Each structure stands twice: as structure tokens, then as C-alpha cells.
Amino acid sequence: MFSILAIESSCDETAVAIIKDDKLLCNVISSQIEVHQKYGGVMPEIASRLHLENIGVVLKEALDKASMKIQDIDAIAFTRGPGLIGALHIGLQAAKTIALFYNKPLIPVHHLVGHIYANEFITNFEFPMLCIVVSGGNTEFVIMNKDLDFNIIGETLDDAVGECFDKVARVLDLPYPGGVYIDKKAKEGEHKFLFKSPHADGYNFSYSGLKTSVINEVNKLKMKNIPYKVEDVAKSFQDVAIDIIVEKAKKAAKEYNVKMICLAGGVSANSYLRQEMSKAFENSNIKLILPPIWCTTDNAAMIAKAGVHLYKAKVFANLDIGVDPNWKIEDFNKF
């Protein structure tokens, strides 16, 4: 068997994990959320500086927790993209330095591949499988017919669903990250507003209209001094944002005759999405995987898990590799 050290630095989490013989030995995360909250969102330049400050500390803590030395690691996995270019560079340079100094192979990991394979901490995959990737930067429906086989059948044409949650939260004066607070407020509200559906042809989505619809409505209410409940706006928005995902998931599952469905990405932590997906497939033969909450946010354990499959497939990179903030999941092995 073999061991992999994985580095994740795509956004505002500096993380290092070590996996050996398919056993996760550690998953150390240094979060920047408190720093970025005061700005209402992630500030890329600040994120990069904090990654630079934290990477050495997180790396040492991970090795200590795993009771391992770097020279005993078999390969170094890192997030190549997508993500913030400056943040990705910090993880890349750390991975390159270790690989060069200790003569270890480099494994470039697509961030969304990591989110998908985080579900393997729950159970083994069965194919064909529908992967619903929902996060701050992505909204994609991906069909997997086997391991490391990704076919996008639908995606957002503009804003990602997680980005929409954050921007709606901002206009409602809710803290960052907005999705968490909208989820909480929606549980106390009623569906009283009619907002534009994010529907698009096929399995695509268009969330910019929904975002604009909510922002315009709230601004109108504020300008006219019309009282409203944040909880009602949150509920009305969340219902529309999530229901279309569930609706299209049911259609895609039938069309592609899938055996399994998995949720992946930050928005997969949304309690309403998890509830509605569970209801939709509770009486079917399709197995639904809901990732553990700790795996829905960015972490290195998911990069390590994906790295295991890439190591077995001998997907390695040369030391001249660069990051790609717009890397497509279908091109996970092209760099």
C-alpha cells in the first residue's frame, strides 16, 4: 500500500491531510472565515497572504498528528484548480518544494473531483452515478460511468448557486458565509415572495436572474419602508434555488439510469437540499449519498481521497506544472 500527503488551498482554508492504506491519519484545517467576515466575502489578496503564513504550521501539525515524516510519504497531492489563482499558487509551491526536495511524485487534483470523492468516506461508489456539485463557484451535474470518468451534462450559465446564496445573504445583512445563515433563517420563515426560477434548458441552470430578483425586491421594500421578515425572504429564495436542483436530479437519474447519486460541494451542507433529496429518492432503488458535514467545506482529506485513485492510475505531473483557476472537471488528467 502507499501513503499520500494532500494540500488544499483553493480559497480560504489552508489544509493538509495524510492518508495511508486507505486510512485517513489526519486532516488539519486552518480557516480564514473570521478574517473575511468583516469584508462580507473572501478577499483574494488577503487569502493568499494567510495561506503563505499558515501552510508551514499546518503541514507540521499534520505530520505530527500522523506520526510520520515527509520522507516516508509516497506522493504529494495538491489542488491545482479551480479556485483563486493566488491561493492555489501557495499550495502548488509547497507541494513542488516537498516533491523536489524529497523526490516524490506530484499528483494534481481537481477541486471538484476532491469534493465528489469525499463521499467515499461514507461508502464505495456504484456506477453509473450522478454527481450534483453545488458550491460557491460551481453548479454542475456530472455523470460517472466508472472511476475517474467525468461527463458534465449540465452546469450554471452564469452565477453558481453558492455565490447566489452569498449575494442574497449580503443584501439581507446576514454574515458571511451567507449560505449557513440563509439556511437557518429559512427554517423560521414562510414562502411569501415569488422570485424568478433559475431554470435553463436541459440540465443547465441560470442563477443570475434569481439573485437579481431577490436583490431588487429587498431594495424596493427598503426604499418604500415596507416591513418584511428576513426569514420569509430567505425561505422564498431557498425554496426556488434548491427545488430546481431536486427537480432536475430526478429527471437526470431516470434518463441516465443511475444506481447512485452523490451531493458534493459547500452547498451540499444545506439542510433543505439534503431533506428534499432524501424525500425524492427514499422509495427508489437509487442510493443517495449525503457527504458528512465536515467534508462539505474545503479540506485536504477529500484531495487525499481523490489522490488515491489518481496515484493508482499513475496520474502524475512534472515540476513545471502551473495552477489553473478555470480547470474543467472533464480535463482532470490534462495539464
How would you describe the overall organization of this protein?
The protein is of the alpha/beta class and 335 residues long. The protein has 2 domains: 3-116 and 295-331, 2-Layer Sandwich (Nucleotidyltransferase, domain 5), CATH 3.30.420; 123-290, Nucleotidyltransferase, domain 5 (2-Layer Sandwich). It has helices at residues 33-37, 44-66, 85-102, 111-117, 161-171, 178-186, 208-223, 230-255, 271-281, 301-312; strands at 3-8, 13-20, 23-31, 75-81, 106-110, 129-134, 139-144, 151-155, 260-264, 287-289. A 5-stranded mixed sheet has the order 3-2-1-4-5, with helices on both faces. A 5-stranded mixed sheet has the order 8-7-6-9-10, with helices on both faces. Strand 2 and strand 3 form a beta hairpin. The two termini are 26 Å apart. The model has no long low-confidence stretch (mean pLDDT 96).
Quick structural gist:
The protein is an alpha/beta fold and 335 residues long.
Q: What's the layout of helices and strands?
A:
Elements: E1 3-8, E2 13-20, E3 23-31, H1 33-37, H2 44-66, E4 75-81, H3 85-102, E5 106-110, H4 111-117, E6 129-134, E7 139-144, E8 151-155, H5 161-171, H6 178-186, H7 208-223, H8 230-255, E9 260-264, H9 271-281, E10 287-289, H10 301-312
Parallel strand pairs: 1-4, 4-5, 6-9, 9-10
Antiparallel strand pairs: 1-2, 2-3, 6-7, 7-8
Helix pairs in contact: 2-3, 4-10, 5-6, 5-7, 5-8, 6-8, 8-9
**Radius of gyration over C-alpha positions, nearest whole angstrom:** 20 Å
The end-to-end span amounts to 26 Å
Helix content: 40-55%
Query: Given the C-alpha coordinates, what overall shape results?
Result: globular
Q: Count the strands?
A: 10
Strand and helix order: EEEHHEHEHEEEHHHHEHEH
CATH structural fold name of the largest domain: Nucleotidyltransferase, domain 5
Low-pLDDT windows of residues:
none
Under the CATH scheme, which class of the largest domain? Alpha Beta
CATH evolutionary superfamily of the largest domain: ATPase, nucleotide binding domain
Please describe the biggest sheet, giving its number of strands, its sense, and whether it closes into a barrel: 5 strands, mixed
Proportion of residues in extended strands? 15-25%
Structural class: alpha/beta
- The average pLDDT score comes to 96
What is the count of structural domains? Answer: 2
Task: Work out the helix count.
Answer: 10
